[in-house]
């Protein structure tokens, strides 16, 4: 049964091949035939060429007569539309919004998070509602930037509290949760300021929070247990409703930081009242 | 829940080599090594540090101090930063005297 099917199949294949061979000779025949047809057509065309061409040119002229004005109208319409759009979008002189660099306008950065603090207690964002929060994502094994930023945070908080009597809660979230245990964070942050709240947790929780706050971090120079974490260094200022109001990059020092935070707080005071 | 397990089960070990005292010792050793490099900049660099940093044998002792006081990843980080600043300094200073790009990129220090 199988054998007969195989033979039938191969026979079919051979038959299919045969017409291919025929077709190879085909094109040459077809060319000739085309030649015949063409010449025949030409012959047919010549005696009646003039009327045919007249009709064709007449029809082509009327058609082209419509094309050019239509194109011009379309172009004019496009220009008018663009002009109207420009007028609509233009901001009149002197009316631009002066929000300054660093203000977060439309994208809502931030979100709920659940992490563990240095006392091994579970903390989520509800616990910070009602406080102004200065949030920093760092790690304890940072060679130079981490300590500098933490120091700056501590100094700014200190200045604000002593001079302006404004309480801002500093929060340090670690982007290296595998090495930064709560005990490690506690020992590290204690040296800067006892008020800094340290947050860590399982890797997935930290990653989720970093994603919500649009923080990039990545392990580099990995040699077993010894690695550095490359990250987008930003300090976020959150208002009492846990909304990101402002972010500060590396270029700020402690004084500028406290001045800017003061500005933001003053801006929000009248709204609160 | 995962968080409770995390809060309960984490070991209590602390990496003391990133705390304040260790950091300050590391910075001091690092600065001593780099100043040695500056002072001996006319000597031929023969020893190889990390990430392509070359230094003369006179600075070997400060190099060992430096490596002992800092983590390996920190050593690499600082060396890389040093080379980068050195390179940009050279680009800015000796534009007239230096000939050819290969000299700048051949040796790092």
How does this structure look, described?
Chain A: Keywords: Membrane, Transmembrane, Transmembrane helix. Chain A: The chain crosses the membrane at residues 63-84. Chain A: Belongs to the SCO1/2 family. Chain A: Pfam families: SCO1-SenC. The complex is a heterodimer of chains A (273) and B (109). Chain A is an alpha+beta fold and 273 residues long. Chain A has a domain at 115-268: Glutaredoxin (3-Layer(aba) Sandwich), CATH 3.40.30.10. Chain A has helices spanning 2-45, 49-89, 145-164, 182-190, 203-212, 254-272, and strands at residues 114-117, 122-124, 132-138, 168-174, 197-200, 217-223, 226-231, 235-238, 244-248. Chain A is elongated, with a radius of gyration of 38 Å. Chain B has 109 residues and is mainly alpha-helical. Chain B has one domain. Chain B is built from five helices and two strands; from the N terminus they run ααββααα. Chain B has helices spanning 2-9, 20-39, 60-69, 72-93, 101-106; strands spanning 47-48, 54-55. Chain B has a two-stranded antiparallel ribbon with strand order 1-2. Chain B is elongated and about 60 Å long. The mean pLDDT of chain B is 77. Chain A binds chain B through residues 114-116, 120-122, 140-144, 147, 179, 181-184, 187-188, 191, 201-202, 204-205, 221, 223, 226-228, and chain B through 2-4, 6-8, 10-16, 18-20, 23, 70-74, 76-78.
């Amino acid at each position: 049964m199988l054998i007969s099917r195989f033979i039938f199949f191969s026979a079919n294949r051979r038959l299919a091949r045969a017409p291919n061979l025929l077709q190879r000779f085909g094109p040459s025949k077809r060319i000739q035939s085309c030649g015949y047809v063409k010449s025949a057509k030409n012959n047919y065309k010549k005696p009646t060429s003039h009327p045919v061409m007249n009709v064709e040119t007449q029809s082509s002229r009327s058609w082209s007569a419509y094309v050019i004005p239509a194109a011009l109208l379309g172009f004019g319409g496009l220009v008018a539309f663009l002009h109207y759009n420009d007028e609509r979008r233009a901001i009149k002189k002197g009316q631009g919004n002066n929000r300054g660099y660093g203000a977060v306008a439309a994208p809502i950065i931030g979100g709920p998070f659940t992490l563990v603090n240095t006392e091994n207690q579970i903390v989520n964002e509800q616990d910070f509602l009602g406080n102004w929060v200065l949030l920093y994502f760092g790690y304890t094994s940072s060679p130079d930037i981490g300590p500098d930023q933490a120091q700056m945070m501590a100094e700014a908080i200190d200045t604000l509290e002593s001079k302006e009597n404004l309480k801002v809660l500093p929060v340090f979230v670690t982007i290296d949760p595998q090495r930064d245990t709560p005990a490690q964070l506690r020992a590290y942050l204690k040296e800067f300021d006892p008020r800094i709240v340290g947050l860590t947790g399982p890797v997935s929780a930290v990653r989720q929070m970093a994603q919500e706050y649009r923080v990039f971090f990545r392990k580099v120079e990995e040699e077993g247990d010894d690695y550095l974490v490359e990250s987008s260094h930003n300090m976020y200022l959150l208002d009492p409703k846990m909304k990101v109001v402002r972010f500060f990059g590396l270029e700020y020092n402690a004084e500028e930081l406290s001045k800017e935070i003061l500005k933001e707080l003053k801006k929000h005071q009248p709204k609160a009242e | 829940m995962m968080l409770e397990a995390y809060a309960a089960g984490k070991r209590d070990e602390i990496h003391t080599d990133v705390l304040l005292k260790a950091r300050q010792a590391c910075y001091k050793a690092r600065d001593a090594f780099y100043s040695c490099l500056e002072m001996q900049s006319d000597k031929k660099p023969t020893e190889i540090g990390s990430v392509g940093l070359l230094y003369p044998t006179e600075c070997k002792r400060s190099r060992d101090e430096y490596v002992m006081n800092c983590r390996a990843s920190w050593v690499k980080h600082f060396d890389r930063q040093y080379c980068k600043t050195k390179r940009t300094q050279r680009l800015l200073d000796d534009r007239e005297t230096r000939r050819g790009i290969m000299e700048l990129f051949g040796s790092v220090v």
